[in-house]
Amino acid sequence: MPADPRIIDVQLDTRTIIWRNADVEQERRIAIFDLLEENHFAPVGHDGPFKVVLRVEDNRVAIDVQDAGGAPLDTVRLGLARFRRPIRDYFAICDSYFQAVRASTPTQIETVDMARRAIHNDAAELLVECLAGKIEIDFDTARRLFTLICVLHIK
Question: Which HAMAP family is this protein grouped with (predicted)?
Fold first, then answer.
């Protein structure tokens, strides 16, 4: 296990993002803040801490792993096919959640939020599974990384 298995900086390759509304931008900021506050990120064969760049290339998500100085260490690529439905479902439930926050009762908001968390949790488990043997991450780190992967898919 790396001596310091954590992410100290994360960037998104924004070339694929056309626009982000205020709600999405807030989700991105929160995910990055929470990720940098506490995470477990241990790429196989490398000692941390790490800088990470997330990007989409050739229908895959690429996770560029760098050392603390920014020198490239590895790139892990995951096919997006397994993530298409969770991303689509997460976008749909987030839209419902943001609408509910503006116009619904607290009970309705809570119901939508529970569904949103369930979809997010399932996607995080899928991410942990897909990274197994390449990068060891904990559940909370996977949740935050999934949020950032979703941001990359906004067209």
Answer: UPF0262 (MF_00678)
